[in-house]
């Protein structure tokens, strides 16, 4: 047998101590990999989570949106207590919710509020209908006659807020964490009788009352649950507020992938006003809310007197964040120097608040190009005059001296997957009345339509 040349043996020895094949591949891939930008989304792939994991492999691409509907109903205490004595409290509150509709018709209950937000499984969504109240938190002694002078400020949001985090389980039930909240202004409570120089409507020592429920639950998509019975916002002993919850599932299918010449598109947002009682009838008469979310609700609103109160159209490029604003900038004084007796104070510091409509979106098409995955944060803020916090006596009249602006905001922050050319319901909010306070008798439905 011939011996191998020394040169050949040396080469073999060097190869024998080299990296294993899989290690060489890992090193190469690590070297080539670059950190992903947090602002640019990757295109969806056939196996990604944008496709409903419960859809059959041989079926068209199926996508799901999950939402939570919360309703507050003020019920006469006697009627509610009599029902509890005769019935066990069920986990499935569907029959009870239907029964409460008859109480509303008979005048023993009142639909107080409804709030809804659509989102994605495992993602947190939030919808707000709120008035921003700015009020004094500290005071200086007054100069001369009159009430003490505001020196520091706090802010409280009044109205309705719904925050939800739904998850689609493998058995198609919905698990969710939710934190619905209602806050109301309940007048003034000064530490001593109101001093000379204050008038009804002035805000100096505000009282607030809130209803807050923090809950985790698991329900079927068409199942109602009762989250609690609470003291009503007006604190009347004659009634209790029942808080009902229902998860909402919106499923849709898309066709086969189509060639895409570009990744541009158009988004249309519509704010549509409807009567609260009419919206409740639509929700109660429809067992499968998915069809309502996916276009039918927009048609019902159009056919039954819904009013388009605002709209916006945005052109977008997939993968790029977009923000459109139509705003009026209002300067608000944040610090005042008290004037001499009988003279007005002097504003010394300011901040800017934007009123109007701002829409921020972050869109990306799904793998087949037939649906759009989008993060969105549309916000509509309105200015409703000023609130008086301090007055000065001038020429025998107590005139406003220190004031702050009142703002009302309707805002939705969420993530959805939307089919093309369908006006999809995003959220349900409450409009303000003529004075900038929440008016739950009128609802505004936010719709989004994707086209390309």
Helix content: 10-25%
Number of helices: 6
List the quaternary state of the chains.
single chain
Computed over alpha carbons, the radius of gyration is 29 Å
Counted up, domains total 1
Distance from first to last alpha carbon: 75 Å
Number of strands: 19
* Structural class determined from secondary elements: alpha+beta
Low-confidence stretches: 1-58
Shape: globular
Order of helices and strands: HHEHHEEEEEEEEEEHHEEEEEEEE
Percentage of residues in DSSP E strands: over 45%
For the largest beta-sheet, the strand count, sense and barrel status come to: 11 strands, antiparallel
Global mean pLDDT: 85
Briefly, what is this?
With 452 residues, this protein is an alpha+beta fold. The chain has helices at 6-16, 21-32, 77-86, 94-106, 276-285, 289-303, and strands at 62-76, 109-119, 125-140, 149-168, 174-178, 181-188, 206-212, 215-219, 225-230, 239-253, 264-275, 307-317, 322-337, 346-365, 371-376, 379-394, 397-419, 424-432, 438-451. It has one domain.
Could you describe the 3D structure shown?
- With 452 residues, the protein is of the alpha+beta class.
- It has one domain (65-451).
- The chain is built from 6 helices and 19 strands.
- The protein has helices at 6-16, 21-32, 77-86, 94-106, 276-285, 289-303, and strands spanning 62-76, 109-119, 125-140, 149-168, 174-178, 181-188, 206-212, 215-219, 225-230, 239-253, 264-275, 307-317, 322-337, 346-365, 371-376, 379-394, 397-419, 424-432, 438-451.
- Strands 3, 4, 5, 6, 7, 8, 13, 14, 15, 16 and 17 form an 11-stranded antiparallel beta sheet that branches. Strands 9-10-1-2-18-19-11-12 form an 8-stranded antiparallel beta sheet.
- A hairpin with a 2-residue loop joins strand 16 (379-394) and strand 17.
- The N and C termini lie far apart (75 Å).
- Mean pLDDT is 85; it is low at 1-58.
């Amino acid at each position: 047998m011939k011996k191998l040349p020394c040169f050949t043996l040396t080469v073999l020895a060097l190869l024998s101590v080299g990296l294993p094949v899989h290690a060489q591949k890992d090193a190469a891939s690590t070297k080539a990999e670059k950190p992903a930008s947090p602002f640019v989304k990757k295109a969806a792939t056939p196996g990604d989570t944008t496709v409903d994991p419960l859809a059959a492999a041989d079926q068209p691409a199926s996508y799901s949106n999950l939402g939570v509907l919360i309703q507050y109903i003020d019920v006469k205490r006697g009627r509610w207590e009599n029902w509890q004595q005769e019935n066990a409290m069920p986990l499935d509150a569907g029959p009870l919710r239907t029964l409460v509709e008859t109480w509303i018709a008979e005048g023993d209950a009142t639909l107080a509020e409804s709030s809804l937000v659509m989102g994605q499984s495992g993602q947190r969504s939030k919808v707000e209908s709120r008035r921003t109240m700015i009020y004094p938190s500290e005071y200086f002694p007054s100069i001369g006659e009159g009430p003490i002078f505001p020196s520091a400020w706090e802010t409280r949001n009044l109205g309705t807020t719904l925050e939800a985090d739904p998850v689609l389980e493998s058995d198609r039930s919905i698990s969710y964490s939710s934190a619905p909240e209602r806050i109301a202004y309940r007048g003034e409570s000064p530490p001593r009788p109101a001093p000379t120089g204050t008038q009804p409507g002035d805000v100096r020592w505000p009282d607030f009352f809130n209803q807050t429920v923090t809950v985790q639950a698991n329900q079927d998509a068409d199942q109602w649950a009762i989250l609690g019975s609470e003291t009503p916002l007006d604190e009347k002993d004659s009634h209790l507020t029942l808080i009902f919850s229902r998860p909402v599932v919106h499923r849709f299918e898309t066709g086969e992938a189509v060639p895409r010449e570009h990744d541009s598109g158009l988004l249309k947002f519509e704010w549509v006003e409807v009567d609260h009682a009419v919206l409740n009838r639509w929700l109660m008469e429809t067992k499968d809310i998915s069809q309502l979310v996916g276009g039918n609700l927009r048609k019902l609103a159009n056919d039954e007197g819904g009013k388009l109160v605002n709209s916006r159209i945005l052109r977008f490029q997939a993968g790029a964040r977009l923000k459109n604003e139509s705003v009026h900038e209002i300067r608000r004084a944040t610090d005042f120097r008290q004037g001499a007796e009988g003279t007005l104070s002097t504003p010394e510091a300011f901040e800017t608040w934007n009123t109007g409509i701002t829409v921020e979106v972050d869109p990306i098409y799904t793998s087949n190009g037939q649906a759009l995955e989008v993060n969105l944060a549309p916000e509509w803020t309105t200015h409703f005059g000023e609130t008086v916090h301090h007055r000065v006596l001038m020429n025998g009249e107590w005139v406003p001296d220190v004031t702050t602006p009142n703002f009302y905001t309707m805002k939705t922050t969420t993530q959805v997957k939307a089919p093309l050319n369908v006006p999809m319901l995003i959220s349900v909010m409450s409009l303000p009345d003529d004075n900038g306070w929440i008016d739950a008798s009128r609802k505004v439905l936010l719709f989004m339509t994707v086209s390309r």
